[in-house]
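Colleagues,

Please find the record for the two-part complex below.
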Amino acid sequence: EVQLVESGGGLVQPGGSLRLSCAASGFTFSSYSLNWVRQAPGKGLEWVSYIGSSSRTIYYADSVKGRFTISRDNAKNSLYLQMNSLRAEDTAVYYCAREGDYDRYFDLWGRGTLITVSS
Amino acid sequence: SYGLTQPPSVSVSPGQTASITCSGDKLGDKYAFWYQQKPGQSPVLVIYQHSKRPSGIPERFSGSKSGNTATLTISGTQALDEADYYCQAWDSSTAHVVFGGGTKLTVL
């Protein structure tokens, strides 16, 4: 089955760190660019970060640049998001999302993992 | 920074046509993409490159663009189409992806 499964969410204090993982299956992981997209409770979607298929190209939203680090391990079919200096406004469901073949859109989403930043 | 504007809510009667708009500067130069998200679920791509439907998406979903406004149209709207809909584009100058604020479609 073609799927993405996120893990690593939970409760963390402001200023703390957390590492999210996204395990892929059912497709050739190394051929696709991947992204993290988040959704705060009751709010809309917000793009967080992008990584190209070979990890040579990486982008971050201004809201997380300098605090979050995206990476991938093509041998393990896994995507990661290292989140440091977490703030209350980072509280959200974090989705990993695969980019489509033809453009920068997301044709496959995981079920998401909830990060709550609170003391 | 680049932004996309959607109406917060749209209401439609069952069987009628629902139209959800998405406007943004220079959207005329870009492709628009649309996602459906039902409560407690992940987003699902329903339209890509303005008007193409992924496999499995019903034909009643269609997309179009005129100038700087993209439109998602749902013909013969059904109760199961009630969801939040998001448009998306990307800014070529920054390579950042942008989402609209979302539109809650209510099927009355």
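Chain A has a mean pLDDT of 97.

Comments are welcome before we finalize the supplementary table.
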